[in-house]
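ARCHIVE CARD
Drawer: 12
Card no.: 0347
Subject: one protein chain, sequence and derived structure
Cross-reference: see card 0346
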Amino acid sequence: MLYKTFLNPLLFSFDPESSHQFMSKRITMLERSKALYSFVHRKCSVEDERLEMNVFGTTFSNPIGLAAGFDKNASLVRAIPAFGFGFIEIGSVSALPWEGNPKPRLFRLPKDKALINRLGLDNIGAERVKERLLEGKCPVPLGINIVKTPDPAIVGEAAVEDFSRCYTMLHHYASYVTLNISCPNTADGKTFEDTASLGRLLDAITVERRRRTEHKEKPLLVKLSPDLSDEQLAKVVDTCRRHDVSGFVCANTTLKRDGLKTDASKIQNMGRGGLSGKPLRKPALAMLKKVYQLTRGKVPLIGVGGIFTADDAYERIKAGASLVQLYTGFVYEGPYAVKRINQGLLKLMEKDGVDSLQKLVGTGVH
């Protein structure tokens, strides 16, 4: 209540990127104090075996994760799990550092409970992220979201090599690795969703995965765009499956602006960028169901996009997601968001007479 009545309005009085940086610095305080971390964790966590999910051979204490984009540079990996997350995904990280697009590049749409971002994949680069991960272990399973360095001069085989190099540098520190092939905010506007380019990328990363026999091969996921046509989606999923991709993240932000409550002129002034939050719920849900059907439920899926409540998460799990992620929902709902969702999931399970969340995965897809 305090967050929504006081802190949220205060933070929303500043520009979104400054607010995010301010809160990130405050969150890092949890890493420096075991007592403070423990206090916040007790207040924000729900511990119940019924919420556990076994995915990729790893046990997740609950299915609610932090989506990529919130902690791009592994600044919060030892602090933000205090808010009750079952896992977190950092990034997107590129092989080389990148400043991103000119500011302003992050915008709020409060009427829609949404964000538009064209940050442009700003990050400190794989080498510095690796150094941060070496400083201490993340207390929950850690996904690392990687991307091609957004330099428009890096194209063709050089782009594949750049992407693969990032994988080589970081995979050892991850519980799973996500390939971000679909970010709409790159400097050149291009992605790896062209199946020929995607095939070459997956060929190169497959070689790297098999070469590193000294470590267990890490699960490899691909993050998909909700803006793909059904035909494009089927081709991308087929290409990934032929390269033994372990699972999919559904879905990235959208370039579409359908049905928004925010004044059209304001949206136009914000310009190009990926839309996240509540308007993404329906397209992300629809896409998740399609991917579950295309894969016949044989690979794990992570649902993301417009998840704010327990009902949203429950719906996504029944639609085929083994795990779900928050970003915009966490921004709008605050530090107790994960706790409220997990408590709500338990109530929904009790109502339906279900003793394990894992049993519900895909039960709503016909």
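Annotation on reverse: The chain is about 40% helix and 15% strand. The longest strand covers residues 87-93.
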